[in-house]
Amino acid sequence: MTSAQIDDKGQNGPHAAAADATTSTEGYQRALGARQIQMIAIGGAIGTGLFLGAGKAIAKAGPSLILAYAVAGLVIFFIMRALGELLMYRPVSGSFSEYAREFIGPFAGFVTGWTYWLFWVVTGITEVTAAAQYMTFWFSIPQWVSALIFTVILYGVNLISVKLFGELEFWFSMVKVTAIVGMILICAGILTLGFSDAGDTASVTHLWSDGGFFPHGIKGTLMTLQIVMFAFLAVELVGVTAGESKDPKTVLPKAINTVPWRIAVFYVGALIMILSVVPWTEFSPGVSPFVEAFKKMGLGVGAGIVNFVVLTAALSSCNSGMYSTGRMLRDLALNGQGPKFFTRLTRTGTPLIGTTFSAALMLVGVWINYQWPGDAFTYVVSFATISGMWAWIMILISQIRYRRLADRGLLPQSSFRAPGAPYTSGFALAFIAVVIVMMGIDKDTRISLYCAPLWALLLGVSYLVLKSRNPEGKAFAERVKR
């Protein structure tokens, strides 16, 4: 159902029925508590993009990377508040796909659901592969063995119960948060007390004295925007948990409102401290800035600590992928846009077939990555970045259209309105457009834009075939729900 279907009945129209629907009809169990949702929200903003990817960004932009993270963080906050407004209007597990379907059209929901599913499958493949590589730091075992063990364990966790998933994600996030806070405190101690090997040279003047705050000009900073935004991918995962939160009306707004301080502390704060202790010119593109900082401080255990943290970050991402892919496939199936067997749930309320199918593809992808780590796989991995941002675009457009209808009295007002919208949502869309342009300019990320039209063509053909076989898609969905 789309916004065009609204008639003169106002809130008694078809949207009102959607708004009144409760997530109990989805069959999920509300087992995720406030503690788990908060840490899922925090962990979603902290990943390997910060621990590893920041090194390349520092080499490109120098200290101005701090500004890039701050501005991008503001945009992420606008995106999350737009999502929060939609979630409080109608908290559903399908989240972005559901809102795109309702406010843009069935095809938009179809594309969003399958694209977000692909994003997490590909991300899961790359992350479990990375986790296996990190294990070789301590153990001499074949990478495929580690990849298989990690995938099976995370698959089992996600099938047992959503509560166990939330608990595992809580501790994964706790490790990442502890590592960053620890680094900030150590750097603060070095700057104020002057201990460690870096104590004599540490100074905040490194932020502007080594070639200036913009050592490569504004262009250098702009060219890091895609790296910066990629680091924030998965922050929207909290929206997928809406259908399984114990008290979504209370918990989700609190989690979303923590976005500014999370980014201020974990990205902006951490970079200010690291770049004050170690001059930006001493960082290498392919090396974690955390590892470099530990070396400069004379802390030999730094490499092992960072390796453990990035291992945790990779497993956290794969765990999130297992969780979200099953929910997305079930949402598509419930709306007649996917095979109906994906609607099946276990007795504990987890999507059995969808999670199993996605986990199997992750294992196949890991095997392909080991056998043929060439260009074909690189194309697919590169596409994951642009597909992740597609969800953000759909969130923003859906919120703009929802707000327009709500302000006209055709839909109930959300209890968590996005401040400054629709202007903030428009600004976020413009910012994402700039990032996409930067991706096209940068030869290292341009491949993502080449893959997008091919995926769009595949989805377009699939949707036409699906529609021809099932012209009454909504009726099919209602039959499945009953």
Care to describe what's here?
By secondary structure, this protein is mainly alpha-helical. It contains 21 helices and no strands. Helix 5 (65-89) runs antiparallel to helix 13 (248-257) and helix 9 runs parallel beside helix 14. The radius of gyration is 22 Å and the shape is globular. Residues 1-25 and 475-482 have low confidence and may be disordered.
Poorly predicted tracts of residues: 1-25, 475-482
Give the amount of beta strand, in percent: under 5%
The total of beta strands comes to: 0
- How many distinct helices? 21
Measured distance between first and last alpha carbons = 18 Å
- Main β sheet profile: none
Structural class: mainly alpha
Q: Element order, helices and strands?
A: HHHHHHHHHHHHHHHHHHHHH
Overall spatial form? globular
CA radius of gyration is: 22 Å
How confident overall, as mean pLDDT?
Answer: 82
Helicity level, as a percent range? Answer: 55-70%
SSE topology sketch:
Elements: H1 14-20, H2 34-44, H3 48-51, H4 54-61, H5 65-89, H6 96-103, H7 106-135, H8 143-160, H9 162-193, H10 206-209, H11 217-222, H12 225-231, H13 248-257, H14 259-277, H15 289-297, H16 302-334, H17 352-371, H18 375-407, H19 423-441, H20 446-469, H21 473-481
Helix pairs in contact: 2-9, 2-13, 5-13, 5-14, 5-18, 5-19, 6-7, 6-18, 7-8, 7-16, 7-17, 7-18, 7-20, 8-9, 8-16, 8-17, 9-14, 9-16, 16-17, 18-19, 18-20, 19-20
